[in-house]
Specification:
Jelly Rolls, 5-stranded antiparallel sheet
């Protein structure tokens, strides 16, 4: 029996090949035969729209335009991934069990905002046949990648940090990216580092997407329960802020949950340090989620710009060449997940506004440079980077409202985070400022 699951991400809220194409079939009855793993370039520039939905419940006809078909045969028993993430245009992917127009829908996904264009098939038998449907709203070349998942438990479960399966043997690490690590249900991984007073730590892991139930915990090295946590560990990102006056030793624990289907997984780990202080205001929702560049974007403020409200905002640690702009809100919250980050300005009854009013001092749009510093593109910064907050805040109906002395307002940067995935966005930490 084949089991399946598409891999989805939250909708992105901020807009921002390889081999020559094979001759695919324009209809489900003329599908091009392929087999095994590989890369298949798909050119639909001359194709019509079939309206095929695999018996219903798969992709709707108005979403799969100019579609074409492959007929794929499994070369051996195992688990396989179908992926159109490498396509240069937004596309749709459907996989149907069977070899002809009677094939029934297995799963469907998109590589546009809302999904990352992957479908995984588990427990495929040798010789099983699937009808693969690829299309898009616009004509162009899409890339279909088919790969096989290998059971890593058949290999030696050692990486450069072994043996590090207890708090006493936790491997020392520091800020950076660590790739191709191995973890299993019977061989957890632990790492250690020390966080200075006022410093924040963010740890993110990206496991093999076939293996669910891989997660990360942060422990105090002095905790008597260090490394003995139980329960689900599906959380892929953890944060810690040291509010003590002394340095705190921390242990990072990566485990595979006992309920996970697969016993072992590869993973990459990003460790980021950031200061959560600001010369003006009080930071919150800090550190921010790691972005595609492997770091949290840090928002800080200072008074004395001599412009507008006198508050100047700076954002650093962002992904190079990505654009963003500043938000102002009435609430400071722990945050709700939006795309690749946490949006921290909305609570019960809260409101927020965007500093992106073109052609005015209410426009804060900027772009991160090669060093991750947000450079102002709107001529609204006395330093060239960040943003000089004006004396007014934007209003939904196009009017403005003054920022008054004694009021407290909350700020956050919203930016594109394409390196983290097609169509994704992210947020900095928040900053609360009393004027």
């Amino acid at each position: 029996m084949t089991r399946h699951n598409s891999i989805l991400v939250l909708p992105a809220l901020l807009l921002g090949l390889s081999s020559s194409a094979l001759a695919q079939g324009d209809t489900c009855s003329t599908a091009q035969d392929i087999s095994g793993s590989g890369s298949f370039a798909f050119d639909n520039s001359t194709f019509t729209t079939s309206g095929f939905t695999g018996g219903g419940g798969c992709l709707h006809g108005n979403h799969v335009r100019n579609d074409g078909f492959y007929r794929w045969t499994a070369p051996a028993a195992g688990h396989f991934v179908f992926d159109i993430n490498g396509s240069q245009i937004s596309g749709s992917l459907g996989v149907h069990a069977g070899s002809s127009c009677t094939a029934l829908c297995v799963d469907a996904t998109y590589n546009s905002p809302g999904s990352i264009g992957k479908i995984k098939l588990l427990d495929v038998a040798a010789g099983d046949v699937y009808l693969v449907q690829v299309g898009s709203h616009s004509n162009g070349v899409l890339q279909l990648e088919i790969t096989e998942h290998l059971d890593l438990c058949g290999t030696a479960l050692d990486d450069a940090f072994e043996d590090n399966e207890s708090c006493a043997t936790a491997a020392p690490v520091d800020a950076g990216t660590y790739v191709d690590l191995l973890v299993s249900k019977t061989d957890k991984d632990l790492y250690s580092l020390t966080i200075a007073p006022g410093e924040a730590l963010r740890v993110g892991i990206q496991a093999n997407h076939f293996v669910t139930g891989v997660g990360v915990r942060l422990w105090s090295a002095a905790d008597t329960q260090c490394g003995t946590g139980t329960g689900l560990t599906t959380v892929r990102s953890r944060a810690f802020v040291n509010t003590q006056a002394v340095a705190v030793p921390i242990v990072i624990e990566v485990t595979v949950d006992a309920s996970a289907r697969f016993d072992c997984s590869t993973y990459d780990m990003v460790v980021a340090r950031t200061s959560c202080d600001s010369s003006a205001g009080q930071t919150f929702c800090c550190p921010a989620n790691l972005n595609g560049a492997g770091s949290p974007t840090r928002l800080s403020g200072s008074f004395g710009s001599g412009v507008g409200s006198g508050l100047h905002l700076e954002a650093q640690g962002g992904p190079a060449d990505e654009i963003g702009y500043f938000l102002i809100g009435t609430e400071a919250q722990p945050g709700i997940p939006v795309s690749n980050g946490n949006f921290c300005l909305v609570g019960a009854g809260g409101s927020f506004w965007r500093y992106n009013v073109a052609g005015s001092e209410l426009n804060s749009i900027g772009r991160f440079d090669a060093n991750g510093l947000l450079q102002n593109l709107s001529g609204t910064s006395t330093t060239g980077s960040g943003y000089d907050v004006p004396a007014d805040k934007p209003y939904w109906n196009g009017t403005v409202e003054p920022i008054l002395v004694g009021q407290t307002w909350h700020f956050q940067l919203w930016y594109r985070d394409t390196p983290a995935g097609v169509g994704t966005s992210n947020f900095s930490n928040g900053l609360s400022v009393m004027f």
